[in-house]
């Protein structure tokens, strides 16, 4: 199967899901099983057992009802690819690597992991076993990101909701959106400088440099919109990063394309996957 992957012959029609508590799974089931947006591709199995949540997802799937399996490992031999949607990124390494080692293409919902070490382990496994891997934030696809694109900026400021005391890994759960957005707007990765932290009430602000770019991330423990400001010699642009109703659709489309291509992440892609988690590592280290 790995040989077929290398020449891009992998067909993905049977998809399994791990971590079904996430609202993203509702969208994936609707997009695949109800609206049939990707041909014959369907969610055919949900890990986590016979729970009320899984039964509700299965009932919402229409005629193509997924089977319920107990553990992620039970998906091996049943599916062609897996969506890992567990909200707490600290679980992702243990969930993803055995599936990758079994030869299954894997999508890992944000964050890739709860530490840069775990993120690197997932990426290294995909590269070692020549298995497709995709991860990331839906914010990368919002139209406002394209509006902010341009030459390498001199400064970037991203604001959004993220709670250091949140139950799903603290800042990693939503804060990785901010880190990934900042790195995407910067473009080419550079060495990260030390992090200077400011905290006040519900707000944590981290200041650092990525290469020659000044980066500010403002995490707010409350319901605030995602927002980005980019500073260049030509001027300053600011945009709210508003997610559309079907914000997971481009994420799913990209994963299926990556899986069908059948190639693991290259060196640059691997580095880009780990970098946002490493940035959150640096921020949380200063929080103590």
From TrEMBL:
Superkingdom assignment: Bacteria
Pfam families named in the record: GFO_IDH_MocA (PF01408)
Xref: InterPro entries: Gfo/Idh/MocA-like_OxRdtase_N, Gfo/Idh/MocA_oxidrdct_glycsds, NAD(P)-bd_dom_sf
Residues of the Gfo/Idh/MocA-like oxidoreductase N-terminal domain: 14-134
SUPFAM superfamilies reported in the protein's UniProt record: NAD(P)-binding Rossmann-fold domains
GO molecular function, one term: nucleotide binding
The protein's name: Gfo/Idh/MocA-like oxidoreductase N-terminal domain-containing protein
Lineage, uppermost ranks: Bacteria, Bacillati, Actinomycetota, Actinomycetes, Jiangellales
């Amino acid at each position: 199967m790995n040989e077929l992957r290398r020449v891009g012959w992998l067909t993905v029609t049977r998809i399994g899901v791990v971590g079904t508590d996430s609202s993203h799974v509702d969208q994936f089931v609707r997009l695949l099983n109800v609206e049939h947006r990707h041909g014959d591709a369907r969610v055919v199995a949900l890990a986590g057992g016979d729970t009320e949540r899984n039964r509700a997802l299965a009932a919402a799937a229409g005629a193509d009802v997924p089977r319920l399996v107990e553990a992620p490992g039970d998906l091996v031999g049943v599916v062609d690819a897996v969506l890992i949607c567990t909200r707490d990124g600290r679980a992702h390494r243990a969930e993803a690597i055995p599936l990758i080692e079994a030869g299954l293409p894997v999508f890992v919902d944000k964050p890739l992991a709860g530490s840069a070490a775990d993120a690197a382990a997932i990426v290294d496994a995909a590269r070692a076993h020549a298995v497709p891997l995709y991860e990331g934030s839906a914010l990368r696809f919002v139209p406002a990101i394209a509006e902010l694109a341009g030459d390498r900026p001199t400064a970037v400021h991203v604001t959004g909701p993220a709670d250091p005391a949140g139950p799903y890994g603290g800042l990693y759960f939503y804060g990785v959106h901010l880190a990934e957005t900042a790195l995407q707007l910067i473009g080419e990765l550079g060495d990260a400088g030390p992090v200077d932290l400011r905290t006040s009430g519900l707000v944590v602000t981290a200041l650092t440099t990525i290469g020659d770019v000044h980066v500010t991330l403002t995490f707010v423990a409350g319901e605030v919109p995602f927002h980005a400001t980019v500073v260049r010699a030509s001027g300053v642009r600011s945009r709210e990063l508003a997610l559309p109703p079907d914000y997971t659709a481009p994420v799913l489309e990209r994963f299926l394309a990556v899986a069908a291509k059948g190639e693991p992440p290259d060196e640059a892609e691997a580095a880009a996957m780990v970098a946002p988690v490493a940035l959150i590592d640096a921020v949380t280290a200063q929080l103590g």
